[in-house]
Structures are given as structure tokens and as C-alpha cells.
Write a structure and sequence with these properties.
Elements: E1 17-18, E2 26-27, H1 30-35, H2 37-62, H3 75-78, H4 90-103, H5 109-125, H6 137-143, H7 147-159, H8 197-223, H9 229-237, H10 243-246, H11 249-252, H12 258-278, H13 282-287, H14 306-321, H15 326-336
Antiparallel strand pairs: 1-2
Helix pairs in contact: 2-4, 4-5, 5-6, 6-7, 6-14, 7-8, 8-12, 8-14
């Protein structure tokens, strides 16, 4: 299930207040914050220190006087879209990514939401995204229950020709402007030209979530066939785990889920095979992650390599782990291939 805001000590969702230092852990009372202090203190300190470094680097960029030729004054205002191209901004960008990495050690809704906000803003500042932070975002959106945003994000990047058709230096061009793309559509475009393991793994998980929701809705139809239609609709509303299905009136009012379930099953199978071909290490590592989750591979590991698998697994594993039944679903598929 997607993460939800709750007390880090007792999981209550009432009267929540953030930790004053790290801002990404919530508590329902002062007593619970004190009780959790020993466990939380180390991660909180790392985040607090990383944020202090970022604030210093941010001030340095704000104070940049510019040279009137190659370095503009205040790149936050004058260099949006090609921020990384100004060498004086790179320490700031590195510090911001370090803060994101520290925040993501905390497995809470607020931590993931904060990390996603930072990464999205880093892409706003530097459209070329030389640091490849875009690879982290789809899985974070899935963890937040923003499945449609994850799919729209992936589709925009996959269907945009980075080398020929889109000028990332032109900030006047529409950017990440795909909205409400069809999550039920064929996924074959995902690997037609551009093989991004992080995106394929995220879409695979999204499709499995859709499939799980449809199977649950089908089962409800079987069990509640004699209910009045208006009552059945109310019951069905609470069945899907994702808003992607719940907010799709055509799907929610369907009287036959079997054909769509068959279509999604076939799509998941296609993506499974595509990922197996693109990186043979990924599915076995998802099922038995072990040391892969703490490995430190080269950021620019070759596509198809074990290092590339480790990078992308670390980006998306929490999203899989937090989705009940998803890893077992792959385990079953893996055993039949």
C-alpha cells in the first residue's frame, strides 16, 4: 500500500506534528517523540547536517555576483533550465542530492514526499538532468500513491527524443506536460528505442497494482452480486488500493473485468520479458536483494550490467516492498519462466 502520514512511534494518524530538526518524521504526541528519540536521533542528525550544508551552498549561489560574461548573477533566477551548466551551482546540486539520499533513509510518507519535491525542483532547475535524478522519481511517486504522476513522468521521458527532437536548453518549450496518459495502454513503446531499467521496473509495478485492483473488484462483484447497484458502487469505491483505478469511472462501472485483467496480465508478462532481456540481473536481485541494496556501484554503470541493476534496484525496491503481493507475484512468474 502507498505510504500515509502517521506517527513514527505508534502509527496513529491523529494530531501529527513533525520533528523540529529533520521535518520528515511525524509524532502524535511529545511523549511518543521522546520515546522514539534514541532510535531516530542518528538519522535525524545526518539529515540536519546535510540540510545545513545545503543551506550554506544555497546562500553561496544566491550571493554569486556574476562576471557579466559566463557566470550570471543569482542563477536561481537567471539560469533556470540550464542551472547545471553554471559550474558555480554544482556544489549546491551535489549537496541537495546528498540531502535527498539522507532523507530517503527514513521510510515515512513525509520523507518520500520531501525527497520527491527536491528531485522535481532539481529537474526544474536543470532540464538536462546531468545527475540523472529523474531515475529516482517514478518509484517515489508510486510510494506516495501518485501512480498516474509516475506514469505520466515515465511516458514523457520515454517518448521524448533527447538527442534530436527536444531542445532541453530552450526553457520555453513544454516540459513534462503529459497529463492523464492511459495507464492501461500497451507498454511496448517503453523499450522500442530507449531502455531505462528504472522506468520499466516502475511501470511493471504500476501494472501489477492495476491488475491486483481489478482482480479485487472482480471478486467483489462475485461476492456481492445481489446487492442493490447503489450499495455495490459504494462498496467498490473502497476496494482499489490506487486512485488510478478508483478515479476511473469507466473501470469502476464496468460489468466485466475479465478481459481487462487478461490484457493487463499479458502486459505484465511482456514487461517481465523485456526487463529480463535488458538486464538479466534485475529480477533475481529483486527476489533476493541482499547486499545489492547497500552496494555502491558507479553512477554511470553500463546498461545491462550488475552495477546498473544495483543502482535501479536501490531506486525502486522500497516501492515494491511496500506494495503487498508484488514481489510474490514476480516470484511466481520467475518460477515459471
Amino acid at each position: 500500500m502507498p505510504l500515509t502520514p502517521c506517527c513514527s512511534f505508534c502509527s496513529s494518524s491523529n494530531n501529527l506534528s513533525p520533528c523540529d530538526a529533520c521535518k520528515v518524521i511525524l509524532y502524535c504526541s511529545r511523549e511518543h517523540q521522546v520515546s522514539d528519540r534514541e532510535r531516530h536521533a542518528p538519522e535525524c542528525k545526518v539529515i540536519e547536517c546535510a540540510r545545513a550544508v545545503l543551506e550554506r551552498e544555497e546562500q553561496t549561489v544566491y550571493d554569486e555576483p556574476g562576471d557579466g560574461l559566463f557566470v550570471p548573477a543569482n542563477p536561481f533566477e537567471t539560469s533556470v533550465g540550464y542551472f547545471w551548466g553554471i559550474i558555480e551551482t554544482r556544489d549546491y546540486m551535489q549537496a541537495r542530492l546528498t540531502l535527498v539520499e539522507a532523507i530517503l533513509k527514513v521510510k515515512t510518507f513525509d520523507a518520500v514526499e520531501s525527497a520527491a519535491h527536491h528531485l522535481r525542483d532539481m529537474i526544474r532547475l536543470s532540464r538536462m538532468d546531468d545527475m540523472r535524478v529523474r531515475d529516482l522519481l517514478p518509484a517515489l511517486y508510486l510510494r506516495l500513491g501518485r501512480d498516474q504522476d509516475a506514469y505520466d513522468f515515465v511516458k514523457w521521458y520515454i517518448t521524448t527524443d533527447h538527442e534530436a527532437l527536444f531542445d532541453f536548453g530552450d526553457v520555453h518549450l513544454p516540459y513534462l506536460d503529459i497529463v492523464d496518459a492511459d495507464v492501461f495502454e500497451s507498454p511496448t513503446y517503453l523499450w522500442a528505442k530507449y531502455h531505462n531499467l528504472a522506468y520499466l521496473a516502475s511501470v511493471a509495478l504500476l501494472k501489477i497494482r492495476l491488475l491486483s485492483d481489478l482482480v479485487a473488484l472482480l471478486n467483489v462483484d462475485y461476492l456481492t452480486a445481489k446487492l442493490p447497484p447503489e450499495l455495490l458502487d459504494r462498496v467498490k469505491y473502497y476496494i482499489p488500493s490506487t486512485g488510478t483505478v478508483r478515479n476511473n469511472s469507466k473501470v469502476m462501472t464496468s460489468t466485466d473485468y475479465t478481459s481487462l485483467i487478461a490484457t493487463l496480465s499479458s502486459q505484465v508478462d511482456e514487461i517481465y520479458v523485456a526487463i529480463s532481456k535488458i538486464n538479466e540481473y534485475f529480477w533475481p536481485a529483486l527476489l533476493n536483494p541482499g547486499a545489492h541494496l547497500t552496494a555502491r556501484p558507479n553512477t554511470y554503470s553500463s546498461p545491462g550490467s550488475e552495477g546498473d541493476m544495483q543502482l535501479q534496484l536501490q531506486h525502486c525496491y522500497d516501492a515494491w516492498k511496500e506494495t503487498p503481493g508484488s514481489i510474490d507475484f514476480i516470484r511466481t512468474m520467475h518460477g515459471t519462466k
